[in-house]
Design brief:
Elements lengths: L2 H13 L2 H7 L4 H15 L4 E3 L4 E3 L1 H24 L8 E7 L1 H18 L3 E7 L13 E4 L9 E8 L1 E5 L1 H7 L13 E4 L4 E6 L2 E6 L5 E2 L2 H9 L4 E5 H10 L3 E2 L6 E2 L2 E7 L7 H15 L4
Parallel strand pairs: 3-4, 3-5, 8-11, 8-12
Antiparallel strand pairs: 1-2, 5-15, 6-15, 7-12, 7-13, 9-10, 9-14
Helix pairs in contact: 1-2, 1-3, 1-4, 2-3, 5-9
């Protein structure tokens, strides 16, 4: 059994098309089709249903898929054992982050990381939706929120402190809140469906009800509204630091409370045989964050 044929099958299932697998593996469509046919012939089963628009695994394909992934992980692990310094990473690395973190932190870090590993291909999915990393074939997700799915493996990379801030013009017109309770009289910019912000006060966690005329489903929407003088926002420092330094926003420091920090997590499907490309990426991102890039 050729591992190259196995890789075509795994990629085809993950992206939902043979053409997509061919592109990811830098193959012609004909070569990818031939590899899949060879694998099915060798196994004596049909692995995928193919139509002109989509590809999906058969029942036999679903059974074989985790074994196929383990074969490829085993190859990567064996190569890493020969090159323990992590040199010469190759293959495709699929990452998902929020749009804001992807643009502000992950992409700049990945530019340097990929220069170190020229054979590595990266697919960065930037979305504010919670992604099913197993179902979509994601290698690692970067999440900055309380984790809900305990079936996944999570590694804490760094703290993510938050900052109360507003545009100087908004504070000139509405005053600067000095105590936690004063936020109730301000227009607060919150994510859709959010009714409270979490704060630390006297070493206790407290919740402050917040409301305003503008809500958004993404951090970038709240940031734009904050710069646009619509109200007070509670945003991650890694995202607003540049705006604070440029004077576009002003930090609000309360006398009796401070925003509770979040944490930056790397989440991946399994702790068993973590591919070297995933392990090296996580370690590189953790070092990037430790240098103050979040």
């Amino acid at each position: 059994m050729k591992l190259e044929d196995v890789a075509v099958f795994v990629e085809a299932v993950q992206v939902g098309s043979l053409a997509g697998a061919a592109r990811r593996l830098s193959l012609t469509a004909m070569a990818a089709s031939r590899s899949l046919n060879n694998l099915e012939a060798e196994l004596g089963v049909r692995l995928v249903h193919r139509t002109t628009r989509a590809l999906s695994p058969t029942r036999d394909g679903e059974i074989f898929l985790p074994h196929a992934q383990a074969l490829l992980e085993g190859r990567d692990t064996a190569m890493a054992a020969l090159r323990p310094d992590g040199a010469s990473l190759a293959g495709h690395l699929r990452i998902t982050t929020s749009a804001a973190f992807g643009r502000t932190v992950a992409t700049p870090m990945l530019c340097a990381f990929m220069r170190e590993h020229p054979a590595l291909h990266v697919d960065l999915l930037m979305t504010d939706e919670q992604v099913d990393i197993v179902g979509q074939g994601i290698d690692v997700a970067i999440r900055i929120a309380p984790l809900k799915d305990n079936r996944l493996v999570a590694r804490r990379l760094a703290d993510s402190p938050r900052v109360l801030c507003a545009a100087p013009a908004y504070l000139d017109g509405h005053g600067t809140p000095r105590r936690l309770a004063e936020l109730a009289s301000h227009s607060c910019l919150v994510t859709t469906g959010t009714t409270h912000w979490a704060f630390s006060a006297d070493e206790k966690s407290v919740r402050q009800r917040t409301a305003g005329r503008f809500t958004a489903s993404s951090l970038e929407g709240l940031f734009a509204a904050c710069v646009g003088e619509l109200g007070v926002a509670n945003l991650s420092r890694w995202y607003v630091e540049a705006a604070l330094q440029q004077g576009l926003l002003q930090e609000i420091v309360l006398e009796d409370a401070q925003p509770e920090p979040l944490a930056i997590w790397a989440v991946y499907p399994t702790a068993r045989m973590v591919p070297p490309k995933v392990r090296c990426f996580i370690e590189a991102l953790e070092q990037h964050l430790a240098l103050g890039n979040a």
